[in-house]
Amino acid sequence: MKILVFTEGTIIMPRAAAGRARNEIGKQKKNTAKITHDYASFIPIGDSVGKLNNWAKQGAEIVYLTSRRKQAEIQDVQHVLSSYGFPAGRLLFRRDKESYQDIAEAVIPDVLMEDDCESIGGTEQMTITRVRPDIKNRIKSIVVKENGGIDHLPDNLEAL
Question: Contacts from 89-93 at CB under 8 Å and sequence distance 24+?
């Protein structure tokens, strides 16, 4: 099973958001760009590291997708993933005019896991919304609350 998981807002978040209510985080993102754009200081949301490692041990291939485009920021996200012990996996990002849809359609994961994009416009901003119907039908979409984590998802990979 191949799982494509969005990084920011789904499995990692700004350190400054830790312990804050979700509605406070959204306000913080809008008002404090410096804090929320310090990608090197991001931390795992809940036990996302343990959850993804558990699925990887059960045979899942984990592929990450970041919203970052600048090489330094992509490296920061990669560093966060490796330093916190997330399972090994490719970190994909958009190049030139590429969209998230393009990446999802190229990867065709069994599961696409992303947050609800609440702070940037909701459903219309989500990757799965734009995937072609013939491919979308082959992907199980799991949408979690932005910065809410994936802890509530099943431990058993087959139950996803």
Answer: 89/56, 89/61, 89/62, 89/63, 89/64, 90/63, 90/64, 91/7, 91/64, 91/65, 91/66, 92/4, 92/63, 92/64, 92/65, 92/66, 93/65, 93/66, 93/67, 93/68, 93/69
